[in-house]
Backbone:
């Protein structure tokens, strides 16, 4: 198998594994584990888990490209009337691979169940919530229905997530994230610990809660590498600079954004371009009323 195919498979597997922390359709790659889901619902709302998934009336399509500019994959998202993603289908042309993700919500719009359909079977998780409508547990299952891993959340008096613990099927801690916030509830710091209690990475944020610096550490506590990010007034990333251990610059990415509109001034296409004029991905919007 070519290196390219291996990379594609690795990306797909990683995507499947982090979905318990990521809502369908958006996330920063290096901050996936830092995403705090403050969606709310009462735990006794089991009878309210219908109707929100229909009607589907909006779809978006996201294209990714090879170095020669040809489309390498595309992803279709379907949303309900509350703009919650209810279905995501990934297509990878070279592997002739298709993976589908289904999401179920309660009447408050909170995700209560997820299923991933792919060649090896079905992977799923279930979410539960406290009386303040904070997600407190996300339970993942293997394709045979046995327990795979468990995410548990803790919150402060302002209902901001202060701790996220990932455990394996035997109950042993795999990793732990701890979060801090300012007086306005904006995240200011994330520290992630590994199974030995050592810091694996640390994020710093700006006043709007966007990551401006992420530092990664070796097992001995020394800095392995870090990156710094800059944004425009709309929160779009403009520049990302990656640094080596000695502080020398490794890689610099710069981004620009283009939009296309229809006759009603609605966005139909968003194109993100990298420094060397290479299109990273193109997101096309299509409205469909059922």
Residues:
């Amino acid at each position: 198998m070519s290196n390219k195919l291996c990379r594609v498979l690795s990306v797909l597997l990683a995507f499947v594994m982090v979905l318990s922390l990521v809502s369908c359709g958006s996330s920063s790659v290096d901050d996936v584990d830092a995403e705090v889901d403050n969606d709310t619902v009462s735990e006794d709302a089991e009878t309210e888990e219908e109707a929100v998934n229909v009607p589907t009336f909006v779809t978006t399509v996201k294209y990714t490209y090879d170095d020669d500019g040809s489309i390498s994959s595309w992803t279709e998202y379907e949303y309900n009337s509350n703009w919650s993603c209810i279905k995501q289908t990934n297509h990878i042309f070279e592997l002739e691979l298709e993976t589908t993700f289904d999401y179920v919500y309660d009447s408050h719009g909170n995700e209560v169940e997820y299923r991933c359909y792919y060649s090896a079977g079905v992977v799923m998780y279930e979410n539960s919530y406290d009386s303040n409508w904070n997600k407190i547990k996300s339970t993942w299952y293997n394709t045979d229905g046995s327990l795979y891993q468990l995410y548990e959340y803790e919150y402060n008096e302002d209902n901001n997530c202060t701790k996220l613990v990932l455990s394996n099927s035997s109950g042993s801690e795999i990793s732990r994230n701890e979060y801090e916030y300012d007086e306005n509830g904006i995240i200011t710091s994330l520290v992630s610990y590994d199974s030995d209690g050592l810091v694996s990475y640390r994020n710093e944020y700006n006043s709007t809660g966007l990551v401006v610096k992420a530092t990664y550490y070796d097992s001995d506590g020394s800095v392995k590498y870090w990156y710094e990010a800059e944004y425009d007034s709309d929160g779009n990333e403009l520049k990302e600079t990656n640094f080596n251990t000695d502080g020398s610059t490794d890689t610099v990415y710069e981004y620009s954004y283009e939009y296309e509109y229809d006759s009603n001034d609605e966005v139909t296409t968003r194109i993100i371009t990298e420094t060397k004029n290479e299109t990273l991905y193109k997101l096309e919007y299509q409205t469909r009323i059922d």
User: Anything to note?
Assistant: Residues 33 and 270 are 26 Å apart (CA to CA). The first strand starts at residue 58 and ends at 65.
